[in-house]
Write a structure and sequence with these properties.
- There is one protein chain.
- This protein is mainly alpha-helical.
- It has 7 helices and 4 strands; from the N terminus they run ββαααααββαα.
- The longest helix has 23 residues.
- The relative contact order is 0.11.
- Belongs to the FPP/GGPP synthase family.
- Its cofactor is Mg(2+).
- InterPro entries: Isoprenoid_synthase_dom_sf (IPR008949), Polyprenyl_synt (IPR000092).
Length: about 160
């Protein structure tokens, strides 16, 4: 069997072999930092854009909640996947940054809403928005994040 890539033909013997499941039980073979290396500059831009979006409100309560959210950042897997897909398809341009930023805001908003539905008290070892400020504030925070995301997406051409 031969596999055809843009760079040429590869035989199965040229491909890396997968380790047996028992070999993968310990530490991951590849760390996220290694996966993020080709898109580090763009991820930094997304992080800055998230800060700008979340800290742009003039409302002190919204600012307080958003600062709390920023202090509990995740792995940024979703924006990373957007960037890696864009890079793979030679489309890592100015459009990928806002799309990836919006996706992270939508994801975060859905987590805030999910915590209300599940009555969760902790997320990533920190008190949830609904536990700290109540369900109403948490729902509105999630909605606010959706609004910010859709506002960003409305600016993307094509």
């Amino acid at each position: 069997m031969l596999i055809v890539f843009r760079e040429g033909i590869v035989s199965p013997g040229d491909l890396p072999t997968l380790k047996e499941p028992k070999d993968c039980a310990g530490e991951p073979q590849v760390r996220l930092e290694e996966i993020y290396l080709p898109i580090k500059k763009e991820l930094d831009r997304i992080e800055n854009e998230l800060r700008n979006q979340l800290l742009s409100s003039e409302d002190k309560f919204i600012l307080k909640v958003n600062e709390y959210l920023l202090g509990n950042a995740g792995k940024r897997l979703r924006p990373s996947l957007v960037l890696l897909c864009a890079k793979t398809n030679n489309h890592l341009d100015e459009k990928a940054i806002p799309v990836a930023t919006a996706l992270e805001l939508i994801h975060t908003g859905s987590l805030v809403h999910d915590d209300v539905l599940d009555e969760a008290t902790l997320r990533r070892k920190r008190v949830t928005i609904n536990t700290r400020w109540g369900n109403e504030s948490a729902i509105l925070t999630g909605d606010y994040l959706y609004f910010k995301a859709f506002s960003i997406l409305s600016q993307v051409k094509e």
